Task: inverse folding
């Protein structure tokens, strides 16, 4: 008799545990059309954010790579008057530093202020290229949590509308189900926003390092032109 009671109790516990099991897919697709649309939009935003992050990260990493002997070779060519060889070296070296140096070499013979201005203008263009589409990450980081919260608010409105329509006789189970399903949009929005925010700040830091390297090489090139021949 006790054995049958234990089996019945175990079966009841298993049924309760199964009833309490909740999958992410169920949360998404049981939240109604509005919840599905908002979750889909958030997933699309996440895909765009990840694509931009990795694409820009590869571009920034490529821009940060430059031969340590590059400026030494430029120095040797410039001091010996081999400006064409210096330009060829810059052309063969695909990096922002090389393009800035080439712009400065093409202005040799003009006042230093003109050379400096040309390098600064070229540097502004290179920074713009490095920061291409990075602002989209900042937009996703700010918009995703708000979109998620919008889905939660819509879900809460629908839940309370159901309560009002039933004259206050709505089942608590259905209300609770609608509420925690609506909350998933906020969770999804926060996850997408956090990923985009971290990616944006990481790219900004990496880009700043490349910009500092560009500035240091520009200063070194101008100092080279100021050296007595």
Result:
């Amino acid at each position: 008799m006790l054995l049958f009671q234990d089996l019945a109790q175990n079966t009841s516990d298993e049924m309760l545990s199964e009833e309490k099991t909740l999958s992410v897919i169920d949360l998404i697709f049981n939240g109604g059309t509005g919840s599905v649309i908002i979750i889909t939009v958030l997933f699309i935003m996440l895909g765009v954010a990840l694509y931009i992050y990795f694409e820009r990260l590869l571009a920034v990493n490529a821009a940060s790579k430059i031969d340590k002997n590059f400026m030494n070779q430029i120095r040797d060519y410039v001091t010996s008057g081999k400006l064409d060889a210096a330009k060829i070296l810059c052309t063969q070296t695909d990096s922002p530093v090389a393009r800035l140096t080439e712009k400065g070499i093409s202005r040799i013979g003009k006042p230093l202020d003109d050379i400096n201005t040309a390098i600064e203008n070229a540097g502004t263009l290179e920074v713009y290229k490095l920061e291409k589409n990075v602002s989209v990450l900042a937009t996703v980081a700010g918009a995703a949590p708000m979109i998620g919260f919008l889905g939660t608010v819509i879900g809460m409105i629908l839940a309370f509308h159901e309560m009002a329509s039933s004259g206050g006789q709505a089942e608590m189970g259905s209300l609770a189900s609608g509420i925690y399903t609506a909350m998933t949009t906020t969770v999804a929005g926060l996850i997408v926003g956090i990923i985009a925010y971290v990616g944006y700040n990481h790219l900004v830091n990496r880009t700043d390092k490349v910009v500092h390297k560009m500035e240091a090489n520009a200063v070194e090139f101008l100092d080279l032109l100021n050296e007595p021949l």
The longest helix spans residues 172-226.
